């Protein structure tokens, strides 16, 4: 914490090793959750950034918007390797749904309690998940 506060970053901390960010996604793991940046899992056939074949995760949960390269159909490629990919539209939709609930409450000048928000969110997310699992 001291190193981070003094340097505004963790790079250079003596108590750890530097990891190449591109290689980080290819470390051995069960679940890979790319967050924040889009396009970090890709299949650029002639690029040194091509990492989709090197990913060792059994599951990928897309917590970022478009963390996979939509032009290269990484989802299909992952399925061919037996990797289950939870698309960003499902992994991120809970937050979007709650934003919609806030909008509905604002236009009605009404406030839901946390229990109602959670109940409504569970209902919509369960319904959407059931539909995706059927497909």
UniProtKB/TrEMBL annotation:
GO terms for molecular function: oxidoreductase activity. SMART domains: ELFV_dehydrog. It holds the Pfam family ELFV_dehydrog. Keywords: NAD, Oxidoreductase. InterPro entries: Glu/Leu/Phe/Val/Trp_DH_C (IPR006096), NAD(P)-bd_dom_sf (IPR036291). The keyword Transmembrane does not apply. One of its GO terms (biological process) is amino acid metabolic process. Residues 1-132 form the Glutamate/phenylalanine/leucine/valine/L-tryptophan dehydrogenase C-terminal domain. This is Glutamate/phenylalanine/leucine/valine/L-tryptophan dehydrogenase C-terminal domain-containing protein.
